[in-house]
Specification:
Elements: H1 2-9, H2 21-45, H3 51-71
Helix pairs in contact: 2-3
Length: 75
């Protein structure tokens, strides 16, 4: 039951590219980023977050994704 709920709340797409560990990790980070941005946008649309707070939170997530890419040494 809990795994079904997690799969519903945090869906993951399959990875089709040639396997390289750093790309697989980045893909997981990218999917997490997209999911979080979706939640933040939904909160803003429903009036629970201001546009400024929405921008701030997405900007922080973007910097985290950018740093993860840099640490993985992906061009």
């Amino acid at each position: 039951m809990l795994s079904e709920l997690c799969n519903f709340l945090y869906p993951r797409s399959l990875y089709y590219r040639q396997f390289e560990p750093e790309y697989l990790v980045f893909n997981a980070n990218l999917q997490d980023f997209a999911q979080r941005v979706n939640y933040i946008c939904s909160l803003q649309t429903s009036g629970k977050l201001s546009p400024e707070e929405t921008y701030k939170q997405i900007h922080i997530l973007w910097r985290q994704l950018k740093n993860a890419k840099k640490e993985l040494k992906i061009r």
